[in-house]
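Most newcomers find our protein records easier to grasp once they have seen one. Nothing more is needed to start thinking about how sequence determines fold. Here is such a record, shown just as it appears in the course material:
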Amino acid sequence: MPNGAFIVGYELDESKTRTGLTILLAPVLPPAPPPQANVVDDHAIGVDLNKPMASDVPDDQVELKAEIERVLATIRALFPNYSQRFPRYLQTLYTVAQAGLTGQYAQTNVARRALLSLKEEIIGCEASRVKLRHLSSLGRWALILGAVTATCGMIFRYLAHLNWPVFIDFILLSQFAFAWSASMAGAFVSYGTRKTELSFEDLVKVERERNWFIVRLSYTGIQTMIVGLACVLNFTQVNIGNKSTLMFSYIVEIAVLVGLLCGFSEQMMSTAIAKQASALLGIPSEPQPSGPADHVGALNGNKPTNSPPAP
């Protein structure tokens, strides 16, 4: 059983609060004492990382160190203020690092199992809270943007009945506004049904997505406008019973349905729009394969030539 090739210590901030772990290569000679609570330590600073050879560090310890650092980055993202359950998770992670990376007999396999148990504990305790917080933030922004566009739609409807002598189709504008508003609700439902369970890697990904809600919802709304314009111009047609998407321009229910469907399928909508645009403009979606002669010539470094037709 190989010896541990690292030394592990706590990382402290100015108020002496534990904020992370410091994992350094242990020096060969002389043996360094364990680091003190503060990472800013004379022994830690004096460690010569060039003394231990890379071949002396077992691969399983290097992999375990990388896994520990990923888990540490995740719990830091979940608790940016180092509050609530962060100290307990950090203490467990410190114990895992000590068991698998330090000491005369490093228990790497035992530490890896303990690390897996810690990840499962974090998922069980934090996944539902993260998803609820994410859904609440997404729902709040979807409600705000949906309410604003729905209000604009009602204003356009009111202006349409005033019969102003202007060349603006307020009814059509209201239809687009109602479709945008409905797409916000569709995007919210799409996320709720898609993210039924979160993995450990999803915890950080979901937290980072919270900063892009407005961009994501606006992107969904713009896609809905493109689909609505295609319905108005008769580029696409879908029949539902005795109704058709060609009625988008004057039936509110059709506009709302198109918006809901676009929001619910917002992840796949961009690919579908790109394919339709390529087909409409005559742009091939994939490069056309060249002929056998051209392929052989390209391999030989020769460019294909177009010979004149025989007389």
About this structure: The beta strands are 6-12, 18-25, 239-240, 243-244. The longest helix spans residues 108-160. Residues 6-106 form one domain. The first strand starts at residue 6 and ends at 12.
